[in-house]
Amino acid sequence: MRHYLLLTCLLPIVPGSVHSVAKDWREQFQTPFEKSDGWETADYHSAIRFYQDLAKASQHVTISQMGKTDSGIPLHLVLIFGGNQLDLASVRRNDRSVMLVNNAIHPGESDGVDASMAFARDLAFDEQRYGAALNNVIVAIIPLYNIGGALNRNAATRANQNGPREYGFRGNGRNYDLNRDFIKCDTRNARSFAQIFHLLDPDLFIDTHVSNGADYQHVMTTSQSQKDKLGQQLGKYLQEIFEPRLFERMKQAGLPTVPYVNSGGRPPEQGFSQFLETPRYSTGYTGLFQTMGYMTETHMLKPYPQRVNTTREFLNQAVELLAAEGGTIQQIRQKDRDAYHRQTQAAIAWEVDLNQPSRLEFHGYESEYIDSNVTPGKRLFYDRKKPFVRNILFFNNYRVSRSVSLPAGYLIPREWHSVIDLMKLNLVEVQVVERDTQLKAEVYRIEEVESRSTPYEGHYFHDTVTLSVAPEKFRARAGDCILPIHQDRARYVVETLEPAAMDSLFRWNRFDTILQQKEYFSPYVFENSAEEMLAADPQLQKEFNTRRKADAQFAADRNVQLEFLYKRSKHYEKSHRRYPVVRLLNLPQ
């Protein structure tokens, strides 16, 4: 076997070469948000210049170009750290934890852009507050992830949002929503993010957003990794230790925080379920690698200055808590990685458990349905003159709805190079078969697929997948790729390659060519073969007759009957609906 190793090409870093800094560094490095009345957000160019200037002035800051984006402009990564100069390649060769912050995946939701700039500056210069934290944590910031959307500035497309005055557009330059692209990786942005993510292997990931939906008192809500699918120990740790401490810190700062209000257009006091982040989303993707993820969701109707300051406070509390808990988190992450590939069964789909609700202290407003002055119907109205605090139902327990037995590994035929490339991009251990080898395997057949009738993020997503599986002595060929299950990236492998997984590559149309039959028959020619088949196979004749008696539509359609027989003949192509990724029951010696 040949083992494939991914070598990440790092572009030059702008090192911190200390220049004279004014005593009042907050004044020297004011952000565009701070220079205005709090209603302006940094555009792409001013944000990058800010970080470049910061890196020149502080030995604790670097900024580097990290891969391409669809816009043609490179993605940037900022590192803030304590101690001596740090280069990217050595980030994970020390005991410090890593916190990765991603901004402007939806550039109209710019709160994190401005909060992160001030946060980075203060980390670099306020040693009294952050010096101890930076001894234990490296902070990494992507200043603006959706560069194409950030450059497409306007003042109108965020119809439900209270500021800033101008902002970017949700779609990128190719009109992709980048927070639906992490597992399918259609964009250069997503590929560059994967390289950054695996280079840093962060212990905590924060993706900054602004919410849509109900009205309530909370400025900050969070959509976080779902505990029941995060990992055996990491999910429990997040629920019982990390999150209660983080939310208590926010409460003590005067900013009570609750999970994202996923009420679906209903008054939230009726109760709501936790949002289930599948791997198309950033936090769902990071969870595949045992990284705790939070999407900060500030409330759209709160004034922009308040939202930015609240996001900043969340970053403050997160880095200080991670500094205290980082060692424990790293140990739990590795234990969960080891435990995943040792289990015999692995979950690939989850559903909310409505029989096990929790309780949540919620600060809301009384609501009612009143007559609309625009349409004939009723509209939902929140009365801000009637605030309340109540313990409401919160459905944050999920149960496994589908699982699979774990094979010894998976084999991807050499022809499916685009899928193999994704495995390598995500640092999956890939063993290349050197000579033809016979292996015990299981092979899926796609029996039924129900797909969306309209495009979703450039795809016709397969909502329903019905499979059959059969054992087979499979002949692996030289050049095919084997992915052993005993590796740290096992969960990513399983949830991308198992076709029934919630965001599998099959569901995202990566294998759709197998669904199209390539060879056909002419009925008048095949009639003779069909007659010979029935005469030679009494069991087939019985099955055929039974179907005609039981199914009137089948009995009335000559072409359907011939199709039935053709698919049972030697002429029918074996590759039709045969899933090409093979589950291996043993690995080559």
What is the CATH superfamily of the largest domain?
Zn peptidases
Main sheet overview? 9 strands, mixed
Major beta sheet, strand line-up: 2-3-4-6-5-7-11-8-9
Portion of residues in beta strands equals: 15-25%
Contiguous uncertain segments of 5+ residues:
1-20
- CA radius of gyration: 27 Å
Mean pLDDT: 94
| Number of domains as seen in the coordinates | 3
Helix and strand layout, with pairings?
Blueprint: E1 2-4, E2 13-14, H1 25-28, H2 32-35, H3 44-57, E3 61-65, E4 76-80, E5 97-102, H4 111-125, H5 127-134, E6 137-142, H6 147-151, H7 188-200, E7 204-210, E8 220-224, H8 227-230, H9 234-252, E9 258-259, E10 272-273, H10 282-287, E11 292-298, H11 304-342, E12 345-352, E13 358-371, E14 378-395, E15 398-405, E16 409-412, H12 417-425, E17 430-432, E18 437-451, E19 462-476, E20 481-484, H13 490-497, H14 523-536, H15 538-550, H16 552-556, H17 558-566, E21 582-584
Parallel strand pairs: 5-6, 5-7, 7-11, 8-9, 10-14
Antiparallel strand pairs: 1-17, 2-3, 3-4, 4-6, 8-11, 12-15, 13-14, 16-20, 16-21, 17-20, 18-19, 18-21
Tag the structure with descriptive keywords.
single chain, 589 residues, alpha+beta, Aminopeptidase, 3 domains, nine-stranded mixed β-sheet, seven-stranded antiparallel β-sheet, 17 helices, 24% strand, globular, disordered N terminus
Can you offer a commentary on this structure?
By secondary structure, the chain is an alpha+beta fold. The protein has 3 domains: 42-341, Aminopeptidase (3-Layer(aba) Sandwich); 405-514, no CATH class; 523-566, no CATH class. The protein is 32% helix and 24% strand. The chain contains 17 helices and 21 strands. The strands form 4 sheets. It has a 9-stranded mixed β-sheet, sandwiched between helices. Helix 3 runs parallel beside helix 4, helix 4 (111-125) packs across helix 11 and helix 5 (127-134) packs parallel to helix 11 (304-342). The chain is globular and about 95 Å long.
